[in-house]
Specification:
about 450 residues, alpha/beta, Enolase-like, domain 1, TIM Barrel, seven-stranded parallel β-sheet, three-stranded antiparallel β-sheet, 15 helices
């Protein structure tokens, strides 16, 4: 079909200024940026031309778990892949020096590779932690989305839901301005006492204080499901905490508890028997190992979940026989990416499992990835975990404010790729903080022993 002069000029102007298309499913305009003049005509010739790996440290309050107390920062690695088309993809994965070094080692052979061929990279990373491949794959998927003008969820078969539900993730904790916390030599930012504290949640180490914080989480973010991170206080106190939370919610909100396998089998059975009086959503990892989990599941009759005894594909054969769980908390860092986690949905169908998502501290790129994963797996029907509310407002490394949580849900970002952009200034601040803090690995026991001398990670 030939274009007349007016049609040709209109088409050329749209190409120069950026084409605005409309998403048929949502009726929302989406701006497609103009193709760079050096873009290859055929995306099959797309090549990675530069790789940037930026280790960062983001502020973390002194929240408590079976492993101890979170230190002043949590660590992440941010990835950027530039291409011969002038398009850059971004990704995020777990922090720690070993992950950073493994990503740096992959830099040389990634140059010249086609990001569409990311699956073949996995074989070259077989000896590296799974989070290394996961970060590379996620960056490639974001890059492919930007190159094609599609969201990652659309690349992976399309969303089955546009709004993904999350649970409140409630931790016992010390106040952010606790003197021992502020005296940590790793602290290199301007946090201080009172109004200068990292946050204003205060100390939460009693059932009453936790019930009040859970209520405030609901008021602020609208969560309908509430998970207590246990394995911190004596088990009977943690059960009383659940009862206090239940009373605060008028008995109408489903509850969860996760002792991170710090309970013995007798303790898990005793507390499990009492959990029947509460609106329990699931009982997560009260004990260690599949056989112990299966025993608690069988004797209590409670729905059991895990992010500890089934965290890799090679754990599944044993789980088929032992039957330790009803709900699998998937983590794309552990299971080698979002596409791999999609296959867990089909496995779950065969085994009678439902899915949710595990979380550890993360920034906005991972948050966007988790929302995306929640959107593309039909079997992911249990509200997912996320640490994101613990990240102070404005502390993220993405452009704009922290991604919003409304009515306990998060919307799939509308932009191409993962739908979020890096804020270069925030990234540089987080990188500088990493360098100056001296933190290179996570060590929850260190701060915990300073807060509670003599503390040991022993079973209750």
């Amino acid at each position: 079909m030939q274009l007349n002069r007016r049609q040709w000029l209109r088409s050329a102007s749209a190409g120069a200024l950026g084409i605005v298309t409309r998403d048929a499913s949502a009726g929302q305009p989406r701006t497609q940026p103009p193709s760079p003049t050096n873009a290859p005509r055929d995306l099959r010739n797309l090549k990675i031309t530069a790789v940037r790996i930026t280790p960062i440290a983001l502020p973390d309050p002194p929240i408590l778990a079976a492993s101890g107390a979170h230190g002043p920062y949590f660590l992440r690695n941010i990835l950027e892949f530039e291409t011969n088309a002038g398009i850059t993809g971004i990704g995020e994965t777990r922090g720690g020096e070993s992950i950073t070094k493994a990503l740096e080692s992959a830099r040389t052979w990634l140059i010249g590779e086609n990001p569409f061929a990311y699956r073949k990279f996995q074989a070259r990373l077989a000896r590296a932690p799974s989070a290394v491949y996961t970060g590379i794959e996620l960056t490639c998927l974001d890059l492919i989305g930007r190159a094609t003008g599609r969201r990652v969820c659309e690349l992976l078969g399309g969303p089955v839901r546009e709004r993904v539900e999350f649970s409140s993730y409630l931790f016992y904790r010390y106040a952010a301005d606790n003197p021992i916390v502020l005296e940590d030599p790793a602290v290199v930012d301007a946090r201080g006492r009172g109004d200068k504290a990292l946050d204003q949640w205060g100390e939460v180490r009693t059932p009453e204080a936790m019930a009040e914080m859970a209520w405030k989480f609901k008021q602020k973010w609208g969560f309908r499901f509430h998970k207590l991170k246990g394995g911190v206080l004596p088990p009977d106190v943690e059960f009383e905490t659940l009862r206090a939370m239940n009373a605060r919610f008028g008995g109408r909100e489903p509850l969860r508890i996760d002792p991170n396998a710090r309970w013995s089998i007798p303790t898990a059975l005793r507390i499990g028997a009492q959990l029947h009086e509460l609106p329990l959503d699931y009982y997560e990892d009260p004990v260690a190992g599949q056989k112990a989990m299966a025993e608690v599941r069988q004797k209590t009759g409670l729905k059991m979940s895990t992010n500890m005894c089934v965290t890799r594909f090679d754990h599944i054969p044993e789980a088929v026989v032992v039957k330790p769980i009803d709900i699998l908390l998937v983590d794309h860092h552990s299971f080698s990416g979002i596409p791999a986690c999609q296959s867990l949905g089909l496995i779950g169908d065969a085994l009678g499992w439902n899915l949710s998502q595990h979380s550890n501290n993360h920034a906005g790129i991972t948050m966007a990835a988790m929302i995306t994963m929640g959107a593309v797996i039909p079997q992911l029907t249990y509200a997912s975990d996320t640490h994101y509310p613990w990240l102070p407002d404005g502390a993220d490394i993405i452009a704009g404010p922290n991604l919003p949580i409304k009515d306990g849900h998060m919307d799939v970002p509308r932009g191409a790729g993962l739908g979020v952009e890096l804020d270069r200034g925030k990234l540089l601040v987080a990188q500088d903080r990493y360098v100056r803090s001296g933190m290179r690995n996570r060590n929850d026991a260190d701060l915990m022993r300073r807060l509670e001398p003599g503390w040991k990670n022993t079973l209750f």
